[in-house]
Amino acid sequence: MTSATLTETHHQTRLKPPTPYAVVLLNDDYTPMDFVVDVLKLFFNKTEDEATVIMLEVHYKGKGVCGIYTKDIAATKVSQVNQYAREHEYPLMCTMQVM
Question: For 51, how many CA atoms within 13 A lie in the half-sphere containing its CB?
């Protein structure tokens, strides 16, 4: 095998990074602020302070980003949060959007 052949057959293929998805909580008029803080701590590993900041963003701006993940992880988090909220009889909605 010549070096020219080696160069031609071993070119690099670059993989593009996975598309990031934001997991977002949406405001409603019924879910208590404490419950939202608990969700952020439980499912997104936020500290009390971090969770409070995001909860206030949800409350005052209508939505707040919980984290940025790959598609599969984001979808799992959305599903877990929505199921948890329903189990506790709150209408809290969690969605995901492409960044």
Answer: 16
